[in-house]
Amino acid sequence: MSTSEDPEIVIIGCGVSGIAAAHRLVEAGYRHVRILEATGRSGGRIKTAALGYLKKHHSTLFHPPLPAHKLKSIKTLGFGTCDKIFVEFESPWWDADCDIIYLVWEDEVLSDVSKSWIRKLVTFTVHKPSEKGSHVLCGWICGHEAEYMETLPEEKVRESITKLVRTFTGKNRQQENKNTRILCSRWFTDPWTYGSYCHPAIGCTAEDLKNMMEPLPSQETLSQPLQVLFAGEATHPYFYSTVHGAILTGWREADRLISHY
């Protein structure tokens, strides 16, 4: 049974900020700390709710509804998609000391995203082999092109990457640059995320970032105990869209509860 000195605290989402907050609270001596996760695993953006989910489902998550100024900020703050495509090759077609590969096109990008989406994949980072015979690149793709890529079957993505690599390396190296398998992230179509990272969109102000981190009830009207606190990369005024931003906000809200009680 919890008391006012040791309240029952529920953290929604077992992501980086949720785990950081729970760890800080337990270290401070709080015994009634519980994390709720929608799936059977932890990991935050791997499988849990994000700002994209909050944008889509805030009306069913909160009763009574969130204050108007917080809703405005949730709607105003941008939330985009950045996907990774891991590609394994039979043999490396890049130099042994290569860390990153940039692809530069000479002509303009086509307006038809179904034909031009692969051109948005302009960077590959080289993953150093963790096991013998492993040759893996990580491709980065963002925006509407990433969203379109998520609608395609993996075999189609694989074929497109094969053509892309051969365009830049030359047809005489077809056997050398053959990929064996791929793995794609799909943040935009994931029902627990609807995107990857937040960003200040057009019309977003510093006040919106401040509103995102504001607890309920607000600190200006603490006539009743704190009920809902907000953490996550989207609630940090400077380090949004970063993992360390998520960790810092988890610690911030844990410290807010510790000082409050």
From TrEMBL:
Organism: Oreochromis aureus
Subcellular location: Cytoplasm
Superkingdom: Eukaryota
GO MF entry, a single one: polyamine oxidase activity
Gene: LOC116309827
Gene3D superfamilies: FAD/NAD(P)-binding domain
Any single GO CC term annotated in Swiss-Prot or TrEMBL for this entry: cytoplasm
Main localization category: cytoplasm
SUPFAM superfamilies: FAD-linked reductases, C-terminal domain, FAD/NAD(P)-binding domain
GO biological process, one term: spermidine catabolic process
Name of the protein: Amine oxidase domain-containing protein
Pfam families, per database record: Amino_oxidase
Cofactor: FAD
Limits of the Amine oxidase domain: 48-258
Keywords assigned: Cytoplasm, FAD, Flavoprotein, Oxidoreductase
Entry similarity comment: Belongs to the flavin monoamine oxidase family.
